[in-house]
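Pair request: fold both.
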Amino acid sequence: MKRQFLRFALVGTVATMTTYSVLIVGVENLHMNAVTASIAGYMLGMIVNYVLNYRYTFSSVQRHHVVLPRFVLVMVMGMLINAGVMYSGINWLGIHYMLAQLAAVAVVFMLSFTANRLWTFTTQKVN
């Protein structure tokens, strides 16, 4: 599990860099709302996350039609939590959007690892 967690963290770092890139470009260059830019980045990061976690972290042998809907559900829940933390951090606590995103990543990271390990990429018989 330790090795798998480290791989998940590495994949998460790549996906987070993707999210942050879209967030920064969206806010600073495209003048988007930070929560909206974060959601856009999260969605692009989700694609990176799926491909790398399927192959590298969990070495899944499950068929995509089984795993992908589960993964999307976990990621949508994570996106909602991410948006909630971003909104709360920026609008209620008055913190900079980059710090709010950092807090969101920390919360979502642990929840998504647990859900993906225990449910999304579980090893079951391939039919």
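--- second member of the pair ---
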Amino acid sequence: MGRGGMQEMQREGEVAKRIERVTARIPSDVFLWGSVASIATALGFMFARKRQAANFIGQWVPTLLLLGLYNKLVKIAGHDRFSQETH
């Protein structure tokens, strides 16, 4: 597949491009430390015998880690990478 074919496959909508521009500016550490803070907070609620609050906050961990993964993917393989190579 030629270079033009790769460019066609990688086209993103305007909304996706805007989201990628914003999320690429956020340091990946933010998501990692947010996850660690959520784990610590959930543990604190567990020790305080507030199980419902602990479960609620504990469910943030996988979401934050997935957002961090998305952030990293945008930085590595976002739409800008192919746009800059073709100019």
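Observation on the second member. Residues 9 and 32 are 31 Å apart (CA to CA).
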